[in-house]
Amino acid sequence: MGNASSMLTQYDIEEVQEHCHKLFSLQEIVSLYQRFCQLDRNAKGFISADEFLSVPEFAMNPLSQRLLKMVDGLNFKDFVAFLSAFSAKASVQQKIQLIFKVYDSDGNGKVSFNDILEVLRDLSGSFISDNQREQVLTQLLKEAGYLRDSYLMLDDFIKVLCMISLPGTIEQEKVRRENH
């Protein structure tokens, strides 16, 4: 699986569905496999960062360099798992975990003030000065009970996100799960 010259078997599809928590249907996985094979220009069975940059939506993303660190060398199964966080069917928790990984650029399981500042700089460009970004971030962390030199683990990161934009979203997620 993953080589452009090979075909997906029913077993491969089911294995990928399990790996991505059944967020994609059989047809969606087949479509993703076709896209994966298009991106895997050398038919190596994995996609390099350069191959990922051939996707215009990805290349134009202000966080593309951070995302590239996460996607370089993905095989098909990991490609689908990575994309699953972008699915409408993905839980808020799955989406937050991906966001946390984007902020945690060194992969140490902690997000520092500077990690957040770098992402804010990538997102806002020159529209906001470094000083303004630092002031806003310092105040936000203070309101959440953290200092500038604090390291945020995933649970801490979620707490900060909840303060700024997610309370309604988390409630909607609970209702959605109860109805399914």
**Largest sheet composition:** none
Can you tell me the CATH superfamily of the largest domain? EF-hand
Low-confidence stretches: none
Per DSSP, the total helix count is: 11
Q: Overall mean pLDDT score?
A: 85
Strand-and-helix sequence, N→C?
HHHHHHHHHHH
How far is it from the N-terminal to the C-terminal residue, by CA?
32 Å
Structural class call reads mainly alpha
Percent range of helical residues: 55-70%
As for the number of domains, it is: 2
- Strand proportion, as a percent range, falls in under 5%
State the total count of DSSP E strands: 0
Short recap of the structure:
Residues 27-62, 91-126 form the EF-hand domain. This protein has helices at 10-19, 26-39, 49-52, 56-59, 64-71, 76-84, 92-103, 113-124, 130-143, 154-164, 167-179.
